[in-house]
Amino acid sequence: MKIAFIGARGVIGKYSGIETYYEEVGSRLAALGHDVTVYCRSYFTPPVPEHRGIRIRRFPTFRSKHLETLLHSGLATLDALVRDYDLVQFHALGSSPFALLPRLVGKKTVVSVRGLDGQRAKWGRGARAYLTFCEWASVRCPNSTGVVSRELCSYFRRAYDAETTYIPNGVTLKDRRGPEALRPFGLGGGDYIVYVGRLTPEKDCHLLIEAFEALDTSLKLVFVGGASYADDYVTGLKRHASDRIRFLGFQTGEPLEALFSNAYLYVLPSRIEGLSISLLEAMGWGNCVLTSDIPENRELVDGCGFTFRVGDVADLRRMLAELIASPDRVALAGRASRTLIEREYDWDRIALRTEAMFEQVLGRNVERRAAPLDSY
User: Fold this and answer.
1) Where are the domains of the chain?
2) Cβ neighbours of residue 198 under 8 Å, at least 6 residues apart?
3) Which one of 19, 78, 125, 213 has the fewest CB atoms closer than 10 angstroms to its CB?
4) Which residue, 101, 77, 106, is CA-closest to 4?
5) SS3 category, 145
6) What secondary structure letter does DSSP report for 220?
7) How far apart are CA 222 and CA 225, in angstroms?
8) 0.85 exceeded by the pTM?
9) pLDDT digit of tens for each residue in the chain (376 aa)?
10) Domain 179-344 coded CATH 3.40.50.300
């Protein structure tokens, strides 16, 4: 197959789950013999022709909260119309209306939905209305729609009477890292609680800070990540920076792997998720995880991790105190997390399921190399 990906910032650098998907699924599809091209934003991806077997096409865009994705996806779609792709996959709701255009010239299209972006706090009324329209477009404009959680499958059936294909995000399992790379941060093994992800209002990082500050513990609280277009929120969070509460910014490679590997506990307090790659990675590194009890988190955590009532700072404080006092429970839950990820959420498995979905959309009768696709 000749495949194009449109909608993310790019590869060779991760900001969200879409960039991770570009790289991990794109490279595996290329290794399976497919021709994969990814459309990238010029400011995000360096000027190289390919990466891990993936062809790269870069286009400029305005650095604007409201127009960046729309403009770049539009330019990429116009370029895709004149190229010989068999299938174009659009990522995230904002780019989904463009999925109709390649179909007009005989190409197949898929939209991949990773969350209900219109619910994010950063959007105003106009942007939310557009993203609500994009929900409709994501199941009406393409040939097929993929979603990353069973909760999203249920949502689209309830809201739009539409069938979708469930293919979750994945992780790459690796051996745990020692704490050596943490020395520049003043951290060691097992002496901190970690949050990894964007510092945006719907992630409720302020709630985690409030709950942690009330605890009497020698553990530190570490935030890994940053944000675009949420400067005021990040500034407010960083007013709490101290020796107990650290903000390390974006991290990749060995430092990030060491931060996951040596955390006592990983916490995700968010109000909105699709299927968090950060949570998947934390579980894949063998972390005990504590998350808000939204359905998208419980889909992963029930049976091997812990939850608190979303938005409830007292309940979050209670659960943090319980787990800090229970290292044996924490270690047991961490082992259970890794076992689940190894069984269900490996990127190799996800890439094969994605390949099967694409072949199905193209109407090709090929022998399945992956487990059957799930539609709900």
Assistant:
1) 2-170+346-375, 179-344
2) 15, 16, 225, 226, 227, 230
3) 125
4) 77
5) strand
6) E
7) 10
8) no
9) 999 999 888 787 665 678 888 899 999 999 999 999 999 988 878 889 999 999 999 998 877 666 888 899 999 999 999 999 999 999 988 899 999 999 999 999 999 998 776 566 666 777 788 889 999 999 999 999 999 999 999 999 999 999 999 999 898 888 999 999 999 999 999 999 999 999 999 999 999 999 999 999 999 999 999 887 678 899 999 999 999 999 999 998 899 999 999 999 999 999 988 888 899 999 999 999 999 999 999 999 999 999 999 999 999 999 999 999 999 999 999 999 999 999 889 899 999 999 999 999 999 865 555 544 454 3
10) no
* The residue to which tokens 């000027």 are assigned: 47
Beta bridge partners, 71, equal none
Cα separation, 241 vs 202, whole angstroms: 20
For the segment(s) 2-170+346-375, the CATH number from 3.40.30.10, 3.40.50.2000, 3.90.1310.10, 3.30.200.20 is: 3.40.50.2000
Q: Any idea of the CA torsion for 83, 80, 16, 235, to the nearest 10 degrees?
A: 140
Q: What Rg do the C-alpha atoms of the chain give, in angstroms?
A: 20
What does DSSP say about strands 245-247 and 265-268: parallel, antiparallel, or unpaired?
A: unpaired
Residue from 373, 364, 350 nearest 32 by CA: 350
Cα separations in angstroms, 9 against 1, 141, 274, 283: 23, 22, 18, 25
CA angle in degrees (0–180, nearest 5) for 279-281-284: 110
Exposure string of 357-376, with b = 16+ CB inside 10 Å and e = fewer, is bbbbbeeeeeeeebeebeee
First to last CA, the chain: 26
Structure tokens that stand for 218 in this block: 């020698």
Identity at 357, one-letter amino acid code: M
Q: Please work out, in degrees rounded to the nearest 5, the angle formed at the alpha carbon of residue 345 by the alpha carbons of 35 and 280.
A: 110
